[in-house]
Design goal:
Largest sheet: 9 strands, mixed
Number of strands: 13
Distance between the termini: 7 Å
Order of helices and strands: HEHEEHEEEHEEEHEEHEEH
Structural class: alpha+beta
Number of helices: 7
Length: about 230
């Protein structure tokens, strides 16, 4: 059993974030659980890398003195699995918004899909989604998007180390990606659709690894609170 001192001195907690929870909600659930259990007034806690509400999987949460390790953990290589749905695009590049354009998929073969993955391996320029928490002129991009204001978003260099198609069940294709910090899998979905002369959006996402940390060793926030 962990003691109050353990949490204050610093812990790295591996959480499996449930679907539709924000990363902030997951941190908050742990924060209140730990504060209540040990009757703590002040207590440092934070996560090392956001997951969208529609994504599940590994969230690293640091407590106490280990919150200093957050930047180093954020910089680690990440692995994701999930699915793209071909033949359509959405403004948010995922299922948070409705399909706004549809595209033909009859020409897409398994060979074309496998060939397209090769274009994305290595260092590439990627434009982040307009529905993202990145800031421009002191305002988050999704705030501009929700107001219908078009803004120019600069591309940035990211690196994709592995990109593998694990199953094809048209219009869905399942994938596994190993990538650098700052990679948006939603943008990858969007760009992948374009490279197939079609459209695509992210329909499922799970973060499975961050550096050497694996989601198989993680627990949900509710299980964590029960185990306290």
């Amino acid at each position: 059993m962990k003691t109050k001192e353990d949490f204050l001195n610093g812990q790295i907690l591996l959480i499996d974030k449930p679907l539709e929870w924000s990363s902030f909600q997951a941190v908050n659930a742990l924060k209140w659980g730990i504060r209540k259990k040990f009757d703590l007034k002040k207590f440092k806690i934070g996560h090392a890398g956001t997951l969208d509400p529609l994504a599940t999987g590994l969230l690293i949460i640091c407590t106490g003195k280990f919150t200093k390790k957050i930047p180093e953990l954020q910089g680690q290589v990440k692995e994701y699995t999930g699915s793209f749905t071909l033949g359509g695009t959405t403004p948010s590049f995922d299922m948070e918004s409705e399909v706004d354009h549809t595209f033909p998929t009859d020409h897409i073969t398994e060979e074309l899909i496998q060939t397209a993955t090769k274009e994305f391996i290595g260092e590439i320029e990627q434009i982040p989604p307009v529905f993202s928490a990145l800031k421009k002129d002191g305002k988050r991009l999704y705030e501009f998007a929700r107001e219908g204001i078009a803004v120019e978003i600069k591309s940035r260099k990211i690196e994709i180390f592995e990109f593998e198609i694990t199953q094809i069940k048209m219009p869905k294709i399942h994938f596994r990606v190993v990538c650098s910090k700052g990679t948006y899998i939603r943008s990858l979905a969007h760009d992948f659709g374009k490279s197939l002369q079609s459209g695509a959006y992210l329909s499922e996402l799970r973060r499975t690894k961050i550096g050497d940390f694996n989601v198989i060793n993680a627990v949900t926030p509710l299980v964590f609170k029960e185990n306290l």
